[in-house]
């Protein structure tokens, strides 16, 4: 499942048998890959070919096309993210710029240490068993960064996070620091831009229109609040500032194709709700 639209990060598990090709298309996100089992041979137009082995991890630059052929049965954990979630992590990485300037970056891997391997074993088990709400992914992103800062040298961190360190964006920091804004005009005001400039910059940074992205975030945040058994429909109407329950009912029918009551029931039964994605495509 992908929760990046509202929280900016997410884990997924990728598997491939011998001879199969694994592809990660350019999507505007960084991808931190952890090779759990098997070997793969990468092909790149920008860097020399490499073979990656179990126990290695590497970070793909934003909008990087990754293609690799599995040499043996392979399992990869992919943590995609748009930015580091904690400001202290960002500041600490900025201090590594001098080290990065001495590195000849070529998508080189870093060895996973025991703490990272243990972390990956647990998150793999949890995701494969069905655990995967957006906030779980956020917590695991933050936990991983703690381990990396605790158990790796500055040189290792600079090598791994080179693409992030050298290309951090203040614009996206503004967007993610206002998680409760669901209006394009209000978000443009928060970014201190006029609407036209904001819309153009947003499309450049995120690869889709601000209106669609913000609506997706609203839908996903509604799903999260629906999963909280303490929340009533009236509470959800209040949290997201709908003018009335009738207004919320119309929203649910349009984007979730069901009533608010049906939506709450489906979410709390653990069903996957994806209707809003096709609604965005239809617009």
From TrEMBL:
It holds the Pfam family HTH_18. Keywords: DNA-binding, Transcription, Transcription regulation. It comes from Candidatus Cryptobacteroides faecavium. The keyword Heme does not apply. The keyword DNA-binding applies. Transmembrane segments: none annotated. This is Helix-turn-helix transcriptional regulator. GO terms for molecular function: DNA-binding transcription factor activity; sequence-specific DNA binding. SUPFAM superfamilies: Homeodomain-like. InterPro entries: Homeodomain-like_sf, HTH_AraC, MarA-like.
